[in-house]
Write the structure tokens for this entry.
Amino acid sequence: MKSSKTLYVGMGLLGALVLAAVFAPLITSYDPNEQDLVNTLLGPNSRHWLGTDPLGRDVFTRLIYGARVDLAIGLLAVILPYIIGVSLGLLTGWLGGRTDSVVMRIVDTVIAFPFYVLAIALVFIFGPGIKSIIVAITLVGWVAYCRIVRANVLVAKEQDYVHAARLTGLPASRILRRHLLPNVISQSIVFAMSDIVLSILAIVSLGYLGLGVPVPTAEWGSMIQEGQSYIMDQWWLATIPGLMVVYVGFSLSLIGDGLVARLER
Amino acid sequence: MLPVLFGISVAVFLIVHSIPGDPADVLLGQNATPEKIKIINRQLGIDRPLIVQYLNFVWDIFRGSLGTSFYNKESVTSLILGRLPETGMLLTGGVILSILIALPLSIIAASKRGALRDQLVRAIPIIGLGMPQVWVGVMLILLLGLKYPLFPVGGFGNTFPERLRSIFLPALTIAILLAPILIRSLRASMLEILDSDYVLTARAKGISTARITRVHVLRNAMIASVTVLGINIAYLVGSMVVVERVFAIPGTGSLMIDAISRRDYPIVQGVTLYFAVVVVIVNLITDLILAALDPRVVLK
Amino acid sequence: MASKKKVLVALLAAFTVASTVVLPLSANAANSAPKGDLIFVRNQDFATFDPDLAQNDSLFIQEQVYEPLFSNLQSGKGVVPWLAKSGTVAKDGITWTIKLRTDVKFSDGTPMTSADVKFSLDRATAGDGWGFLNTAIDNITTPSADTVVIKTKFPWAPLLADLASFSNSILKADFGGKTAAEFFKSPIGTGPFMLDSWVPGTEIKLVANKIYWQPGKPYLNSVTWKYVVDDNTREFMLKGGQADINEEPPANSVASLRAAPNIKVGVFSAAASNYLAFNVKVPALSDVYVRRAISYAVDRAAINKVVYSGLGTVSNSFLAPSVNFYDKKTPGIQFDLKKAAAELAKSKYKKGLKLELLIRGGNKAHEATASILQASLKKIGITMTIKAQEPSVQRATQKAMNYQMTLTAWTMDIVDPDELLTFGLSPEGGTNSYYTNYVNKKVIAAIKKGQTNVDPKVRQTAYSFVQKQVADDAFMAFTINPPYIYAWRSNITGFNVNPMYTYHMENVKKN
């Protein structure tokens, strides 16, 4: 596959899901929380394309509405760490010296700190929910961007065009913004693509440990957790939300690969 | 290493102490009235000022002790050491299996860039990265534990061969998560090497492709894998929490999860420090191996 | 008050008859040596051999090592003498004489005497955990090696039931000369099994006590409890033959387990109740009509279907049906949205209101109950939000009474309802009526009457009144009486769980 094709296919797949999530009420006539306690645990049929869950809610509807929550968490949980990590990485890479060594010690500490201890503790402190998950991922996630950007800045700093810019007396902030940022940022965007998937997977894992998004919100991680107990008889309840995560991962990977190929050119 | 451990000891101490809920409440359950909680808190020494508790914690570390579990009164050090075989075997097994999966596939893919086999292998990381571990684990149990009962569905045996059999499925679950990441960087590094000047020179000299693969490509592949594993070790250690629970393997991950929900401060602190030490040591070993494999790397 | 004693003796006579059925005295010990190694899988981790600190995670296992003077009947409605031969109360109503069996030995070979009993009961009474069960005990004396005399501060009907609690198990006197900590690492009791090995967080293994006093028992050579958190994994282990008994399989798996070959399922009736608790200090919930409206809106049958696959029973009283003195005629509120709307119309909140329900995050029963309740309250104009907290945090919030509504539950530890009624309704329980702030002086007086009267008729009248009154006041909505569910391989026989949630492993065989 050509790189641009990869990129477009990926964007098309993700775009379709985003559209479905945004226009969910047009796609399905059910409410994601509408219960039908008579028709519970139905298999896929013409009225309920993916069957119903233990409370008789339409699984297809919950899946689409769940995309809203999961994509939003995935995105938010990347944007914040991205901003923090990129800024700190630029700063420490550029300044070097004591700032750099202090930030790098913090980075080392965060890397060595087990993510789940932090995530679980935060869920206990703030209660289960989107806020705790995003805070936990942000506290840990910025480190990767910081490292990537810093490494790039260290290399870029020694490039001729930056030296030249410095010699002409351009202020540091301008060199950073105009010359370094565009160059170092591309690699971190590629990483961000797989990071979104990792964030969604973290939500799934937290859901499995009983620390996910609280009921009755439709969300893939909680749907997988709720479906776990029905894995023997109604296997699709846990499997289909799992496949949605794979779908998102697939489209984001295509986008990431496409971007890499573009940048290499 | 010391600043990192200091930072972690402060962070974990503050975090566990800011979680609401009393250890005494866990010990006494429904019977925990406020006065009884006070009595138990005094016995556990958690009614003292935080700074005193922290200094005690650090002082204990210098004497080689991580304290005693609130829940079952066992020494934290011996609890962690008791879980070492499980965690160690699981981690090693997962790493070995992922290399066994990733290496041949990457060689096949890199042998002809853009061919169908390359496209197929490239699809693996794209799909594999998004698979939730819980789901992979349960599917493996259903298939290889119940349908075709080749492996135990859970638990950790008592003899070494039993244990090898027990950790196969969980290690495979880890490998399914890790192999895609490995394949990605292995394939890239192999292609890079195959395109490089010295391989072209070697080819021009008439050295067979097989030999080139063996000598140059494999060594560089090792460098790439070691780097990837080094970077992902912290993530791996963390993600074992889920695998351990699905397969009922009593490793350090489940020790920690239980301890947090029981407000067993000494265990949470001890295990966190232990994780940190493992991560730091693995990073050190990674650097050493890289230095041995790659003459360009100079140890500071 | 001669009648009191007569009643008691009559009761004890009944118990003795029962005991001869349970314990065949014909010493046919030579029949067989213990054989078979049984493996339990459960989602709770054993914590301690200290009976005072025992919770459900530890007490079932402790009960195989230590035994009490009296034991709960399988029906859950009475006790039989166990390490005791008999227990009688004098005419004064406060002097209890307990005769001990003389054939009981501890697992270290020493005989059990009244000194061990006095030591154990005194320790239990002083305990921080379960000492409250023994608050009526004034002092204990030991006139002879096989006689114990317990004086209570006032006439106290639940005494024998209290003595049957695991917390009043008989330990070796003075911990056999060791410290408490040492003793609980290598415990010595009179029970059918002894500690073999314990790997915290993993498993605990008990082996047969070869000199157990019940002839021919235990049948098993060893029992191992493995800690397996994941519900599916436990089920897979049972199906794959890696486990013999699965504790608490999810209710929705019962149908498929029943259909599976080689698997048997036991659904045991439990002295357990689930409740929706109201904090009556919250202005809206101090209005009895609002509480009654919400209680009418709880679709109990739906909850039973979704959470317990219909295996539980819909609740109508504060007491569970398998608890002594439960009154079937208690007018507990049942699901009826029309009546719910009618009750709400009588309240100050005719136009509807907003309330928050506190639940335990990750608890599937809580989550499903909350979702169902939220949907039906919406129909009568009550907007309910759901707030999830980690279990231990939820408990802390509940105890601090910083909630509006929450889900809570109770399992009886003794056969007498007094434990729950005191804990849940009387200021002596120290819990502000199970953390609801509910106070009804008539109810408190009736509970006192029930405690201090040994005549079952008087007690029944008092307890029926209590049940009716709290149902009318709707200080909690009584929701479901859940069952205890166990699944085991069909070659396991003799496994039974009583409503107090305890089992006797000495009766179990692996064929």
About this structure: The longest strand of chain C covers residues 137-144. The interface with chain A takes residues 231-232, 235, 250, 252-253, 255-256, 299, 302, 305-306, 359, 361-364, 367-368, 370-372, 374-375, 386-390, 392-393 of chain C (CB under 8 Å). Confidence is low (pLDDT under 50) at residues 1-30 of chain C.
